[in-house]
Amino acid sequence: MDRAIVLLSGGVDSAVALAWAKERGWDVRPLTFDYFARPKKEAIAMEALAAHSHVGPVRHVDLPFLKEVDDLRKEGLENPTLLRAPESYVPARNLIFYGLAAHFAERDGARYIVGGHNGIDPKSFPDSSPKFFEFVNEVYRLGLWTYDRAPVKVVVPLSGMSKADVVRMGLERGVPLEATWSCYWDRKTHCGTCPSCRERREAFAAVGVEDPVAYDVNRPRPKD
Fold first, then answer.
1. What is the CB neighbour count within 10 angstroms for residue 94?
2. DSSP 3-state of 116
3. Which of 35, 95, 132, 184 has the fewest CB atoms within 10 Å of its CB?
4. What CA–CA distance (Å, rounded) separates 103 from 106?
5. HSE-CB of 216 using CA atoms within 13 angstroms
C-alpha cells in the first residue's frame, strides 16, 4: 500500500483532497502547520475531518514565525513591494510547507504529498500554481537522498477546478463540509464577509446547495 501525506488545513479544499487520497486506498498521514494567529477553529475542523476519514493523528508542526502580510505590516515591513500582496499571503509559505512535507515523507517512506490547491489559488498565490509544483517535484528529485529508490511526488488533485467544482466533488463523496472552517477569524460562526467566506458562499450558491455552516454577516470585522 502506498503512503501519502495530506496537507490538511480544515477548509473545504483540503477536506476534499483528503477524501480523494482515501479513495486511492493509500495509507494517509495528515500533516498541518500552525502558523501565527491561525484560527483555532481550523484545528477543531481538522480533528473532525481526520476522525471522519479514519486517519490520524494529525501531525502538527509549529511555525510561529510565519505571518500573513497583514500581520507583518503591523510590525513594519522592510520590503515595501510586499505591501501590495493579498493580506492573507504568507511570504514563501508553500516553499516552507512542501519542504517540510518532503522531510516527513522521506522519514515515513511516503510516496505522495497531497495538496488541496484549487484552480483559482494561483491568481493570488504564485506558490500554488501547477508550474510551481512541477519545480517542487524536480527539487525533490535533486534533493532527496532516497529519491532514486523511493521517489516522492506532490499531487494536486483539485488543480484547475473552481471552488464550486470542489464543493460539488465534496458533496458527491460525502465529505462532512459542515465540519470545515473557512473563515479568516476565530468566531463561533463564519463571519460571511472575509474573502474566504465570500468565496465559499458563492461556491455553494453556484452549486445550488445551502451551505451547512452558519454565517454572522451582520457582525463587523474585528478591529486591530
1. 22
2. coil
3. 95
4. 5
5. 12
Domains, the chain, ranges and CATH? 3-175 (3.40.50.620)
DSSP 8-state symbol, 215: B
Q: What is the pLDDT of residues 24-40, one digit of tens each?
A: 999 999 999 999 999 99
Cα gap 89→43, rounded to integer Å: 20
With cell 504568507, the residue in question is 90
The continuous run of DSSP H or E covering 7 comes out as: strand 3-7
Q: What is the CA radius of gyration of the chain?
A: 17
**How does pLDDT run across 83-125, given as a tens digit for each residue?**
999 888 999 999 999 999 999 999 999 999 999 999 988 888 9
Q: What is the Cα–Cα distance from 46 to 28, expressed in whole angstroms?
A: 14
Evaluate whether 127 touches 96 at the Cβ level (below 8 Å). Answer: no
C-beta neighbour count of 120 within 10 angstroms:
16
- The candidate with the shortest Cα–Cα distance to 154, out of 101, 114, 110, 111, is 114
Residues 6+ apart with CB under 8 A from 142: none
Query: pTM of this prediction?
Result: 0.93
Sign, Cα dihedral of 146, 113, 104, 95: positive
The helices-and-strands tally (H runs, E runs) of the chain is: 8, 5
d(CA 134, CA 136): 5
CB burial of 122-150 (b: ≥16 within 10 Å; e: otherwise) equals beebebbbeebbeebbeebeeebeeeeee
Task: Tell me how far CA of residue 31 lies from CA of 6, 91, 109, 124, 190, in angstroms.
Answer: 6, 20, 14, 23, 24
